[in-house]
Design goal:
This protein is an alpha+beta fold. The chain has 4 helices and 6 strands, in the order ααββαββββα. Strand 4 and strand 5 form a beta hairpin. The radius of gyration is 16 Å and the shape is globular.
Length: 179
């Protein structure tokens, strides 16, 4: 019973971390976003891939110049626990009120995260963001319009990056893949 209770607490801590991230991005709150990651974590968001500390700067620049506001919604969530490591796949829907061009941007995809528990705290150690569909976009809205799928990363079989263990952003996104 004690191990089941700990598993439930771990799962809730991980989900709370995901919610801190989405709220932090929507509020452009640097500290809140960073609280979802371990220092030095790697985030691969397609248009940006690198250390989380630089990613947060990219997020602020990207969203503050392109959107008046946005909402990140997380939906389906799978969490595989293995001691102090967890691999998650979390679907998201993003809605942004654009500052110019098409009034609204809507797209969806998945966050593939490797979480680690360090000092009794679950945070993201490695993230790959896969944007799989988009609506309301024009070429002027984003520097690189989003593909419907990302070759070598997004697949409807076991070649999908969600099956990679352990998840590593540089392994999940082969050099030939496009963002």
């Amino acid at each position: 019973m004690e191990s089941r209770l700990q598993e439930l607490l771990d799962r809730q801590d991980i989900l709370d971390c995901l919610h801190r991230y989405t709220r932090g991005v929507d509020r452009l709150d640097r500290d809140l976003i960073l609280s979802a990651y371990h220092p030095g974590a790697i985030d691969d968001h397609g248009a940006f891939c690198g250390p989380v500390e630089e990613f947060v700067d990219w997020v602020h620049e990207f969203h503050s110049t392109r959107h008046h506001m946005e909402h990140h919604y997380v939906t389906n969530h799978i969490c595989e626990l293995d001691g102090d490591v967890a691999h998650t796949e979390t679907y998201f829907i993003f809605v942004g009120q654009n500052a110019a061009g098409t009034p609204t941007t809507v797209h969806g995809g998945r966050y593939l995260d490797k979480f680690e528990r360090r000092n009794d705290e679950w945070r993201i150690a490695n993230r790959v963001c896969i944007s799989e569909w988009a609506g309301g976009l024009t070429g002027a809205d984003l520097p690189n319009p989003l593909p419907r799928t990302v070759p070598g990363i997004s697949a409807r079989d076991k070649t999908d990056a969600s099956y990679i263990r352990p998840l590593d952003a540089f392994v999940a996104r082969p050099p030939t893949a496009t963002a």
